[in-house]
Amino acid sequence: MLLAIDIGNTNIVLGLYDADAASADAQGADVPLVRDWRMRTEPRMTADELSLTVRGLLGDYADKITGISALSTVPALLRELRVMLDRYWTDVPRVVVEPGVRTGVPLLVDNPKEVGADRVINTLAAHHLHSTNCVVVDFGTSTNIDVISARGEFLGGAFAPGIEISLDALASRAAQLRKVELVRPRSVIGRNTVECLQSGILYGFAGQVDGLVHSIVAELETTHGGPTTVLATGGLAPLVVAESGTISHHVPDLTLLGLRLVYARNF
Predict the structure, then answer these.
(1) pLDDT (mean) for 106-132
(2) How many of the other CB atoms lie within 10 Å of CB of 134?
(3) Least confident interval from 30-34, 91-95, 158-162, 223-227
(4) Which of 113, 143, 235, 243 makes the best surface tag, with the fewest CB within 10 Å?
(5) Cα–Cα distance, 71 to 217 (Å, whole number)
(6) Does 266 fall in a domain?
(7) Which residues bind ATP per the record (predicted)?
(8) What's the rounded Cα separation, in Å, for the pair 196 and 185?
(9) Are residues 106 and 231 in the same domain?
């Protein structure tokens, strides 16, 4: 079984794929996602602590792992990830996404080394799913918007503060405002402080994303032509997808899919 590990700034996501992922992809077959787990990222976690948590979540699957594909956007945990794999899965083939790993994704930006591994992997997965130009909106610690050509080239994108970061900042800087549950309010016009905050966060971010996507798609039509598919992923995507007028596909496991695909490219 293939274990996919996505270490982000806020959460660590694990995915378990059935069968021999590399062989199945080579034959054009689909590989089912058996299970997935999400846990909080702790940047000071050691390799031993990371292993204990991962193996605890995997349970009986822990000794059935035949391949591992992983990435980390947290530098402190990237080293601990490597130590964990060397110490606890010594004989298991693995790919840790970093410069030099075969992804098949051309990075058409000023400094390719600046592009995070998660953005490269999302590009690979989006192009696998759709043969059109693609825009991937990743709702995580930050809101990342990545732009992909119909040829699978990473063209760049845009960053914006994430939903939780914005809510935390608002609550800490405004004396009479506080953190609220991130759910849809009764109406856009809030009738109390909680609903006003929920409305501003939910509909405000949906409007921000739609505005950026509209501008990106208009530019893509000029420079690359053809239709554009807009996908959403990330832990906070379900909050915004229903309110967005531009997002057409919600793919919660997009990064896990990309990790499966990059493993197949390297074995």
Answers:
(1) 96
(2) 26
(3) 30-34
(4) 113
(5) 29
(6) no
(7) 6-13, 141
(8) 8
(9) yes
**Annotated binding-site members for ATP:** 6-13, 141
Q: Do 25 and 127 share a domain, yes or no?
A: no
Same-domain pairing of 194 and 228: yes
Least confident range from 17-26, 103-112, 159-168, 196-205: namely 17-26
What domain range is 215 assigned to? Answer: 100-256
Which residues form the catalytic set? 118
Q: pTM for the full model?
A: 0.92
9 and 86 share a domain? yes
120-132 residue pLDDT tens: 999 999 999 999 9
What are 106's two structure tokens?
């051309």
**Nearest alpha-carbon partner for 143 in 160, 123, 118:** 160
Could you give the CA distance from residue 252 to residue 234 in angstroms, rounded to a whole number?
A: 6
Q: Is the pLDDT of residue 22 over 70?
A: no
> CB count, 10 Å around CB of 248?
14
* Cβ proximity of 164 and 171 under 8 Å: no
Nearest residue to 103 (alpha-carbon basis) of 129, 121, 79, 130: 121
As annotated, the binding site for K(+) includes 138
Edge-to-edge strand list for the sheet holding 228-233: 154-161, 142-148, 133-139, 228-233, 249-250
The position carrying tokens 């996501």 is 13
Judge if 129 and 164 occupy the same domain: yes
In whole angstroms, what is the distance from residue 267 CA to residue 252 CA? 25
